[in-house]
Fold each of these.
Amino acid sequence: MTSENKNKSGVSRRGFLAGMGIGAGAGVLAGGGGVAAYSAETDSTGEDSSISFRDAHQAGIVTAQQEHLHIVAMDVLTEDRDELIDMLATWTTMAERMTQGLPAADESGESDYAVPTDSGEAQDLGAKNLTVTVGYGPSLFDDRFGLKNSKPAQLNPLPTFPSDQLKDELCDGDIVIQACADDPQVAVHAVRNLVRAGSGVVEVRWSQLGYGRASSTTTEQATPRNLFGFKDGTRNIHSSETEAVDDFVWSDEAGWMNGGSYLCARRIRMLLELWDRQNLGEQQATFARFRKSGAPLGTEDTDDQEFAEVPFDLIYGREPVIPEDSHVFLSHPENNGGARILRRAYNFIEGSDTFGHLSAGLFFIAFAGKPEETFIPIQMKLSRNDRMNEYVRYESKAIFACPPGLKEGQDWGTQLFG
Ligand code: HEM
């Protein structure tokens, strides 16, 4: 999806970052004027690579999955509701600009004597299909900001699942920003500048980089591979499945969450050293798919069989060909009352652990309109019985309610607080 969507106004009501040059007081939030000065809407190949910011639903959910992720969860520091509303308005303007390849704020009034309004590292990179998706955690709806009565129905802290090995500092959060782009620096730049603009109002709780997509959300995209070497995303919900998207991705509950989606996140460490010592048969039995083609066991190991039906009833000798503890058996809709989720996961490798092993894994993100009927029961089943559990450690959990898309003239502050 390309966009002709130029920057809209959306002026912050307070200059809480005026000292730095960010905020309404500093005239940073461009209306028409500042925008004309920039035209970074094409990438280095000259092709338009920006994605519309305003739509019925937020971008970054069914959007063709970009290659890179920077996701950050924040806690709100202020107890002043207006300060939070102002920050969300400022973020909206900044996010909209950045998704169009513009600097986070209008730089026309800059001087050697003022702090630059944009941190600068994405200046020549264009939009690179950047999407910025916001979401709110259950804790934001406590007593602090008068939001108690507008808490979405299914926004409850995720349960602790069997075999979780959670690190508390990587869990939960009041607000999430998911930035995805086809250039890592563009995603990092977006998060960095929003965090910077939120200084004093929010602080970072956890953040995660993902360097390669491990799902596909459209049929045009080839299925990528995860760090176990398997194709991942074959049976994902694809954006062209409009009925499934409506049934399983968008929330139909009343109130501001209507048309939004719940973001369910799990940082899953993958024990590559252990996995890399297993024979191919065991690896394939773990997923019930061939490693090479991604086709289900019991079919041909050829690329044209990747999307073949999974033969759950096929018996070989006395055993089912699709092991009942395999990841696909346990997560397939047929064995979950038809339930489906939209996966948007990313691979990560970040340094090493203290035992001389790579610290690698999958940052799993699922979007669900009704997580209590889809994501949670599927995850519960996997956490109990998945053969894959021997090779992974679930280190975090978080859930956020992502509101629907913004209408013209609306910003995230007025959308949430009315
Ligand atoms: C490190 C963690 C994980 C790895 C390596 C992994 C890998 C895979 C692979 C290789 C497939 C088969 C290809 C496909 O259809 O995409 C698959 C399918 C699937 N996975 Fe995962 N997965 C992980 C975590 C999860 C989690 C946490 C959930 C949900 C709670 C999940 C839900 C699913 C679902 C719903 C399918 C589709 C099953 C089907 O319809 O046949 N996965 N996964």
Note: The chain is about 20% helix and 20% strand.
Amino acid sequence: MPHHRTDDLDELIACPVCDALYHARMPETGERVTCSRCHHVLIAPKEGAFLRVIALALTVMILMLGATFFPFLSIDAQGFSNAASVFDSALAFTDGGWMVALSFATAALIVLIPVLRAALVIYVLGPLAFGRKPWPGARAAFRWSEDLRPWSMAEIFVIGVAVALVKVSDLARVDYGPAFFMFAALVVVIVLQDGSMCRWTIWKTLEDKKSS
Ligand SMILES: [Zn+2]
């Protein structure tokens, strides 16, 4: 249960679900602070959470490398066979015009933004995980990573592909390449990473370590 006090505006925390306002304090490790109105978890610091988030962010970057360059799928139809990676597909639209812009934007949403977010999280949490002072610009980097969250579309890409493949499978034989399974794994890892990040704890640690 959050602490009720009336001083210190910095320590205010609003429930993202029901907007109830609380004065927050750092709970003991393993303890969690929940909204007393709707029971949404507000603060949940976990032992070793920063290191776990860093490990998951590294996993995102490595998986994304494979998911981009390994064959994504191969299609067989009437004797013709074609295998392509996501990278090949992004380069396929080089004949000019707005298709180039479209393929670049698609590649950015699917590949670059999730990788950028992972890199920002590692930059922010790296020093904190070892009890050091944050690196310069860590607050801006974390803000940026949070702002980019809705634009990270690896998950939506996987769902889109699944729907498209159901349609295509009537016309041609479709085989999934290793990159397809890497994308599927990415979706799980990104969800795990976002789930193990207690944002309040990260902001609070950035604030406390800044002056020390
Ligand atoms: Zn609430």
Note: The chain has seven helices and seven strands.
Amino acid sequence: MKVSVDPDVCYGSGDCGIRVPTVFALVDGYGTVLPGREGAGDEPEVQEAADWCPSQAIRFSE
Ligand code: SF4
């Protein structure tokens, strides 16, 4: 499953990058998925980061 961050919803709390630094990072003040890690959506810690995202900006797709 693919993971992404909706830039229109993210407000840059940085929580995702702190929780899962191997997948997320704060770039220009917004959460983003690191290049090459877009397929990490099935990883439990990524799902957890989505649950904890204060703006529910982390998206999943097939
Ligand atoms: S946890 Fe959510 S609001 Fe915070 S930087 Fe990540 S995607 Fe954005």
Note: Helices lie at 15-19, 44-52.
